[in-house]
Structures are given as structure tokens and as C-alpha cells.
What we know:
The structure holds two protein chains of two kinds.
Chain A: H1 6-14, H2 22-25, H3 27-45, H4 54-77, H5 83-106, E1 138-147, E2 158-159, E3 164-176, E4 182-185, E5 190-196, E6 200-214, E7 221-226, E8 229-243, E9 246-260, E10 263-268, E11 271-276, E12 279-284, H6 307-310, H7 333-339, E13 350-353, E14 362-365, H8 373-388, H9 390-394, H10 397-410, H11 414-426, H12 435-451, H13 455-467
Parallel strand pairs in A: 6-7
Antiparallel strand pairs in A: 1-2, 1-3, 3-4, 3-5, 4-6, 5-6, 6-8, 7-8, 8-9, 9-10, 9-11, 11-12, 13-14
Chain B: H1 2-19, H2 22-30, H3 34-56, H4 62-76, H5 86-107, H6 127-146, H7 149-160, H8 165-172, H9 176-200
Helix pairs in contact in B: 2-3, 3-4, 3-5, 4-5, 5-6, 5-7, 5-8, 6-9, 7-9, 8-9
Amino acid sequence: xxxxxxxxxxxLAAAPTPAEPHLDTCLTCLSALDDIKAAQGxxxxxxxxxxxxxxxxxxxxxxxxxxxxxxQARRWTSWWPSMPRLAFAAVAVxxxxxxxxxxxKQTRVEPPVIADRPExxxxxxxxxxxxxxxxxxATVASAKRAxxxxxxxxxxxxxxxxxxxxxxxxxxxxxxxxxxSRAGLTGASEMQLAKLEAKALTLDLERGNLALVVPHRQDRxxxxxxxxxxxxxxxxxxxxxxxxxxxxxAVEEGSVEVKVPGQTRTVTAGRAVSYQQGQLDELAWLxxxxxxxxxxxxxxxxxxxxxxxASAPSALVEEQTDKAPPxxxxxxxxxxxxxxxxxxxxxxxxxxxxxQYPPAVVVTVTPPAWFSLxxxxxxxxxxxxxxxxxxxxxxxxxxxxxxxxxxxxxxGDNLNAIDAANDxxxxxxDPPEEQFVRREVLFQKMRCLRRLGRLxxxxxxxxxxxxxxxx
Amino acid sequence: xxxxxxxxxxxxxxxxxxxxPLRALALQARAGESLAFTQLYERTREQAWRVLYRVVxxxxxxxxxxxxAYLQLMKALKGYRGDSKVTTFLHRVCVNVGxxxxxxxxxxxxxxxxxxxxxxxxxxxxxxxxAQVKQAALLVQQALATMSDEKAHVFTYHDLLGLKPEEISxxxxxxxxxxxxxxxxxxxxxxxxxxKLKGRTP
Lengths: 471, 202
């Protein structure tokens, strides 16, 4: 006998009056039907859902709203972990964009100029005028057979910048420069006042001899130009000579800076340089011998000066005509000299007066009486002959030793300089060309003796110097 | 041709919207509009409540289950293409939430607070009737908890919610015959479970 299926029994159980003959004879199917009826009865007992409580609905709504808001926030904040990468990417894109824009701007082709575009007037910038430097003048202190380009020069005549000055043979000219310096032009010389300014004085020596007595000042530069050679004073007395293509610079006191193409050399007192055909040679120079003062009483071993020594050395005093610094400033040259410390390098007498040379105080230098232009000319001629002499140009051993003595004296090595001078003089023979070198060696010895306070010995050396024939 | 296709798609969409006015709200809620989801909740909350009530009975967890059902709906809307009724979509979510609750409840000890009714029911006036109803609901819940997931879903859709096999076929994404076969087996399991459970009860 075939039993009924479960779905058939489920349908029969749902029916109010199940009509199935099989159930009358099959207890199994009837038992199953009872179970299904019980299950369906349970299902029928299931309660109908009531109306949803409003309070619950509101609470759920609020909770959902909160959850929606939170999820909305998480939606935005979910981007936060990737924000650094996004920010970096944004910055990189921005930098690349800006760089591309800059490159595009730099390589941008200029637009074509429109033909009918009105041209703007071209304004040429006017250079600003440099502040004009006040020009100064030089004053003629004394003149003899001297003239400028128009007429003969007279004392107290003022000369402006650019003036060309010449002296005839046997003539002489002393100028008072704006800064108080004195410039002396010997006979048969020519120079030009190239620049006369407060901070720069420039003299161009065309030919002849030029003597300068210059106080050292930091606020201006005094330059003497002679061809390619340029001399800058460092506070000194010096001479410049230009003849026959040869330029000679000799330093009486202090030092100067000599500049030629390719080199610059500082020349100190007692030294000179010769420049010709691009060659600069240094040689000894015997400064003017100053009159020796009377021996000081406290020096026990000082020998009393001879009368002729005490008097002014007439041989060194320039003639009345070319005494450049007029005597009113120095009434008694001998008295002035006595006031000078007994050193050759002592500065010259300086008078301070206020002139129309703003803004600094004008320092007027009065050259010593023995610093005459005639003597300068004579000595410079001697130097020229020395430079032109085969003896000096050859550079003999005795000349080299004489130069060495001068260098030792310049360095202050007085004792060694005196010993070297004694050796040199001991073996001295007396050729005409060596007299000048002998004079230099004696001068260096006297110089060192004075420094050591051995004045009697220095006086003896001075007498020997004066005994030497002058050329 | 493109214009005609577009026009026909528009007509079908409009027809669907007319048939199921909840579709537009579901699509707007899928796009992230909170207001649309709130309106969708207001319009469907009674249905969801009834489904959950039929599955889990009178339970203090109903409120949490309802909230959980809508939260899952919120997630499920991301995959909603608008080609099905929103109520069908909601039924599936609620049944799934209810059955999951029954299974979890079966695994944990019985909570005495489950017996606390929150609202007045018709049976509350008759204590004996109320006890029978409560017993019946408990049996159904326990029987459903013992059934497999497929059978429990089909049985719930058909015998608790009253859906037709064709509707269940759409919900479970299975042929109607499969639904029928699955329903028959589910009834066998349910009857056995109830019989077994009733034999334990005093």
C-alpha cells in the first residue's frame, strides 16, 4: 500500500474535513496527518502583528538618523588616511603646472609688432653730471727766466690747472702748490700743471729737472709724471729729472713710490732710480749735505766746530735769484737748521698757516736754504753723468759694496755700515769716477756716526766730505 | 534608434516608478540622500515590523532587529539596481535578520526578559489564550531555528508571510519548482520539529 506524501497530508490537514479513504486504513499516514495538524495549529496560533508602537518607530528613526550622520562622516573621514598622498599629489601637480607655465612664459614668442603702432619717443637718458671738483691754483713764489704759454711769470702770479710752464737755460721757478708743497723747476725745464684739485695734484714733467718738497698728507695724492714713469710722494723731498730719454728720480728725504709699466718700487732717502728704455735701475744718491749744527755742550767728546763749519755752507746755498722760498718764512737758515734734529731724514721746517685751501689746514713747506735749485741742477747733472758712466753701469765690486753700505745704513745697521764704510775707504783709490761713490760712502758713515751719537767722528767725516771736489 | 531605445527605457522606468513609488526613494537613498532614506523608512517601517514580528514573535529585541534590518537595507541598497520591488527587497532583509536572530538566540541561554511584552495584544486579555499563543510562537521560532537556511527562508516566506511561490522564487532567486520542493521539505522539517518540541513540553 502506498502512503500519502507529506505535501498531500499538509493539504489534507489544512482542509476542514479531509476526505481520503487511505487514511481510514493506514495508521501511519493518519499519525503523520495528526502531526501536521498540530504543526499547522501552531502556525495558526501565531499572533497577528500589532501596530508598530509609535515610540519604537520614533526611536528607530532617531537611531537611523544618527547612524546615517555617522556614516556620512565616515564617508568623508574615510578619505583621511589617503590625505597625505592626495596632498602630495596635489602639490606635485601644482608645482608641475607652475613650472610648465613659467617655461611657456619664457619661451613665449613675442607678438609681432603692429605696423601702425605709434612709436613712443625714444628718451635718451641724460647722464647725471658729476659733481664738479673745485679747481685750485698754484702761486709763483719766485721766477727767473720763466714763463707760461703767454707771458713771463712774475712772483705771486696764480696759475690754474693746465698751465704749461717753461724755464730758459739759467732760469729757475718756484711754485707754491695748493697743498703747501713747493715745486722747483730748474733751468731749461718744462712742466704742466696737469691737475690741481683738493685731493689730487699732478705735475707732468716734460723735460729738465723738478725738485719737490712735499709734506706727507693722507688727504691728497701728489703725483709727478715723466713719460711712462710716475712718482707718488709719501712725504718727502725728491727730485725728478727727465733728459735725453732717461728719467731719474732721487730721494732726498723720506720715500716715494715709483711706478713704471710692469713694476712699482719704493725708493727711500739716499737712493735713486734711473729709468730708460723700460729698464728701472736703482743706484745710490747722495742727498744734499746739510750744515752740521754746533756740538752740544753735554757731549764731552764733541770737538768744537770750526768757524767755517758753523757758518752756513756757502757752497750749498743757492743764489739769491733762485732762492725759491722767500726768506720771510725763514729769516735765518742757520738757526732753522740748528733746530732740526741731527738726522738727515728729519723733515723740513714746516709752517702752518691757514690759506684758502679748504677744508684742511694748509701746511706750507719751506725748503731749506741749502736746497737751492742751482744745487739741485748741479747734483742731478752729476747723477746723470754717474748713470751714463761705464763705471757705474758696469756695477763693479766696489760700487756694489758702496750700495751695500747704503742699504745697511738705511736699515739702521749703523755699526756694520760704519765698519763696511771703513773697509771700503781703506782700500780706496782715487779715480775720477769713484769720487762720487766715495762721497756717498762717507755720507753713509757720517749718517751712522750721528745716529750713534759719535758726533766728533761725524764732524771729521763731514770735513772730509767738504774737502772732496764737487763736479 | 538610440532615441527610441532611450525613450523606451524612460517609459519603463516611469512605469516602474508608478508601480513602485518606493523605487525612487530607494535610488535616491542609494545615492546618499539621508532624507530619501528617512522617507523610505517612514513608508516601509510597518511592513518591516510585521515581518520581523512574524519571524521572531513578541520580543524585546524587535526594536533592535528593526534597526538592524534597516541598517542592512542601507548597505544592500548599494547593489539595488531598481529592477525589483522595494518591498520584496525589504522582506528578504527582514527575514534574514529575524532568522539570524533566532539562530543566535538558540545558541545562547534563554533570557527571561524575552517574556516581557511591550505592547497590548489581543491575546493579553485571555491568559490561557495568551499562553497558547506564546507557546506556539516559541515552537515556531525554535522550529525555524533548527531548519536549514534555505528551508527556513522558503517556509517563512510562504507559511508565515503568505507569499506565493512565484514571489518567493524572486526572493530566493530560484525556480518556482525549486521553491515548491524546498517548501515541501521545509514543512516536513517544521512538522518534525514541532512534534519533537511539543513532546518535550509538559
